[in-house]
Amino acid sequence: MNFVKLAEDRYSLRKFSSRPVEKEKVDLVLRAGQLAPTAANFQPQRILVIESSEALEKLKRCTPCHFNAPMALLVCYDETASAKRNYDNYNTGEADASIVATHLMLQIAELGLGSTWVAHFNPATVRQEFSLPEHYVPVALLPLGYPAEDAAPNEQLHCHRKPIEETVFYNTFS
Q1: Number of C-alpha atoms within 13 angstroms, CB side, residue 34?
Q2: What is the pLDDT of residues 9-61, one digit of tens each?
Q3: Angle value at C-alpha 44, between 40 and 47, nearest 5 degrees
Q4: Beta carbons within 8 Å of 138's beta carbon, 6+ residues apart
Q5: Range of the domain at 103
Q6: Distances, alpha carbon 128 to alpha carbons 22, 36, 124, 136, in Å
Q7: Residue 26 located in a structural domain
Q8: What pTM does this model have?
């Protein structure tokens, strides 16, 4: 599958099968995250694999958007390990974690699995439930698994894109 086709076909999966994800596939997904570019190659991403029944119950206390997936990935960044821009001390950690999460999601799709980006969670609850160090900042939850037989993209959200002329500008904004 070519990249644009993969990006077109990938959608936010919100209905999962109970089928467990094979360790080999999880390892490939995590490898894709490891290969993601980060500012100054500092690699501040910290990924928690949530797969035990106990951990999945904790996840349910953190968000209603768990979709009963058989597992999830919590993508964080370590504030002490992320790059800071010299000009204004901008912390690149959130951007780095977002790039990593995108790599994870695209690899998930390429393997025939599904996920969705969940930002609807209380970071304090996530920190408490999963005993995160204070300097770890949670950015995204990715419920992960095989699509249910009747899973389908939300046509109102998935297929609609603004015309490229509204989002891309050459040399100047107009």
Answers
A1: 6
A2: 999 999 999 999 999 999 999 999 999 999 999 999 999 999 999 999 999 99
A3: 145
A4: 74, 75, 76, 121, 123, 126, 127, 132
A5: 13-148
A6: 29, 28, 6, 12
A7: yes
A8: 0.95
